[in-house]
From TrEMBL:
Belongs to the glycosyltransferase 15 family. The keyword Cell wall biogenesis/degradation does not apply. The keyword Nucleus does not apply. This is Mannosyltransferase ktr4. It comes from the Eukaryota. Keywords: Glycosyltransferase, Signal, Transferase.
Length: 336
């Protein structure tokens, strides 16, 4: 029996769609274009990189444990004790109960006994409680309060999260260029930043700080995000002014193609006046503080601090850290 013409056409279309589907499934992976693109399947561990330091010798009471000069670091308020405990439970379960790196907590007011007792119950490792010096937290003397109030109003109208909150601006400035100056961290090299009320789902069975040291890495992160360009309109113009005055700080093997990318989100680049707004989400960053203490970064932070954008706009530590790493560090030292 002859098949009707519409049926033959439908069958042919079905075959074509089936072949197209198979070609999509089995095609070669996309070519890597640069930082931010998927390079290889996700793994629980760095791929094909040894040695990885395991947990056998890391008991909290072992004075000869191979722990290096590093700490878990948290800026947290007394009223966030429960949220901090949530984060600690996860990170201790998945990683730190095996390696027992110290915890260092920072606050702009003294920690309460209740806070101290709550977090101490969650770890066998050393716990340190540090008060931020007033000169590290206070709004700088060169910030005009009337201009800040007007800027906060504009940020609020633009629906920029936390824009009107003075304490949020203080926190961003402290995380950008003040925390590593605290006397308690004077002789500490590496830190892993831990926020209240975050979660860690995967078991990690190697010493991540040792990994950073052994592989000469400056910075590790979990994810890249795009910032709200309305919160940082003059950050890149100020950065260009800094580079014009200090071209010596630009690293020859930098990641400026990532910093300046205008293809993925051209509207962000335009509104941020040349910066992609793509940044390392610093809430989970692991870093070598030698970079923040370098002349290049200290000069850069001083320039930005004097420009006032931490208060007149909402310059966060994430884009500030990211731009600095992308320009002043060898991109091979960032653990992409």
């Amino acid at each position: 029996m002859a098949v009707a013409k519409p049926a033959r056409i439908l069958a042919l279309v079905s075959i074509i769609l089936f072949i197209t589907l198979l070609s999509q499934i089995f095609r070669a992976p996309p070519q890597i274009k640069g930082p931010g693109d998927l390079e290889q399947p996700m793994s629980d561990e760095p791929m094909n990189e040894e040695p990885l330091w395991r947990a056998a010798e890391y008991a909290a009471d072992n004075p000869n444990a191979p722990r290096i000069n590093a700490t878990l670091l948290a800026l947290v308020r007394n009223e966030e004790a429960d949220d901090m405990v949530t984060s600690m439970k996860d990170l201790e379960r998945t990683w730190n109960r095996k390696f027992n790196y110290p915890w260092t907590f920072f606050n702009d007011v003294p920690f309460t006994d209740e806070f101290k007792q709550a977090v101490r119950r969650e770890t066998k490792a050393q716990v340190n409680f540090e008060l931020i010096p007033k000169e590290h937290w206070a709004v700088p003397s060169w910030i005009n309060s009337d201009l800040f109030d007007e800027s906060a109003r504009i940020l609020d109208e633009l629906a920029i999260q936390y824009g009107p909150m003075v304490s949020y601006h203080q926190m961003c400035r402290w995380n950008s260029g003040m925390f590593y100056k605290h006397p308690a961290l004077q002789h500490v090299q590496y830190y892993w930043r831990v926020e209240p009320k975050v979660h860690f789902f995967c078991d990690v069975d190697y010493d991540v700080f040792r990994y950073m040291q052994d592989h000469n890495k400056t910075y590790g992160f979990t994810i890249n995000l795009y910032d709200a360009p309305q919160s940082i309109p003059t950050l890149w113009p100020e950065t260009k002014r800094f580079l014009a005055a200090h071209p010596e700080h630009l690293h020859p093997n930098n990641a400026d193609d990532w910093v300046l990318d205008s293809k993925r989100r051209p509207e962000h680049n335009a509104k941020a006046n040349g910066y992609s707004t793509c940044h390392f989400w610093s809430n989970f960053e692991i870093a070598d503080m030698a970079f923040w203490r370098s002349k290049a970064y200290e000069d850069y932070f001083e320039h930005l601090d004097r420009a006032g954008g931490f208060f007149y706009e909402r310059w966060g530590d994430a884009p500030v850290h990211s731009i600095a790493l992308g320009l002043f560090e060898d991109k091979e030292k960032i653990h992409w």
